[in-house]
Amino acid sequence: MGSWFLRAGSGTFPFFDASPSMEIELPRRALVLLIGVSSAGKSTFARRHFDPTQVVSSDHYRAVLTDDENDQSVTGDAFRLVRIIVEKRLQRGLLTVVDATNLKATDRREYLDLARQYGVVTIALVFRLSPSILRERHQSRTNRNFSDEVLRRQIELLPALDRNLAFEGFQAIYTFESLEEVDQTIIRQTASRTDGPFDIIGDVHGCYHELLDLLARLGYDVDTFQSTTGRKIVFVGDLVDRGPDSVAVLRLVMQLVEQGKALCVLGNHDDKLRRKLLGRNVAMTHGLAETIAQLDAESLIFRQQVLAFLERTPYYIRLDNKRLIVAHAGLREDLQGRSGESVRAFCLFGETTGEVDAHGLPVRINWASSYQGKAVVVHGHTPVSDPVWINNAIDIDTGCVFGGKLTALRYPERELVSVPAKETYAVAKRPFLTL
Fold this sequence. Notes:
The chain contains 14 helices and 20 strands. It is elongated. The model is unreliable at about 1-20 (pLDDT under 50). The protein has a 6-stranded parallel sheet, sandwiched between helices. Strands 11-10-9-19-20 form a 5-stranded mixed sheet. Strands 12-13-16-18-17 form a 5-stranded mixed sheet. The longest helix has 17 residues, at about 75-90. It has 2 domains: about 5-190, Rossmann fold (3-Layer(aba) Sandwich), CATH 3.40.50.300; about 200-420, Purple Acid Phosphatase, chain A, domain 2 (4-Layer Sandwich), CATH 3.60.21. The chain is of the alpha/beta class.
């Protein structure tokens, strides 16, 4: 098994672990995809561990439409109903389990996009039984009338999971490779990481020691980073570049997210690093060259873990029952609850005129000046000397890497907490703006 996957009880997945008794904790605000060929035992597993209302099954909707769950002629209609029900449940923040084969990346992507849209955790439970066991179980089933050829084609899709699944955006992947693992697994549903209160931290840009100082000021234990009051940390993105220790920041944030103590959205600098790690042709500017040099001193496994983390980090999240949105550059009200490339671009870069200023930087539109949304939007991206509420939005990037300060917003209290930069690590091309 590749190191990207967590086999129940094995502890090999780099971000989520299972206990020796094979207990899996699932947050109540989560989308769970059961992945595996027919006859792998997914439906039996779902009935054993989840309430009937939590499971959305393609077989069930085939039966609803035709009184026959095996009727493949209505597969398209059945999956359209599945998608509608999944979306309506995610809108309400309910744990939702999709019981289908989910073997094709295109099918999984649609569900992952919905999860990002509604700010819920995505978890894959992969039933990776041996082909001989699958064929034996298929032959013994009397309630299935599809051919051995269909089963063979499904089995042929399994190797692609090993190559692709870890890079698709799941927060955790658990793989079962034997019937014993399936039977012995215990599922526990826990409180969601999207329940507040929150401490939302502005652009860190590699300022590791300032981040430690700020977490201490916010009341987190300096050894465990645990809050004694049940608070959770949220990072607005731009973890890397320009500052002295992007690797240390990445390592800490990845650890906090893994442990369920923090959430994070993707910043434009983080996304540029992601594309570089994928081998894309990107300009080595604005601190990226230094970040890559720091990563080159780390192990290949750590660089793979960084890439996997960035690949599954959402570009915005909705918290506090959709009353709070965190996006790196902000999010207009007409884009909230939506997904797609235009939404992603706005979250990463904000809105610009298409022109550049005297400093050679994009001229940005102050979208918050006309914001009329009900949700509070907390963002960074544009350094400001001091955060100012504009309508129902606030920019908390106070330019720590440029010698300013690192700032957190305590939500729902709307209290600002800052620590000063220890030095100026990079020179800002234009003065900080007070919007």
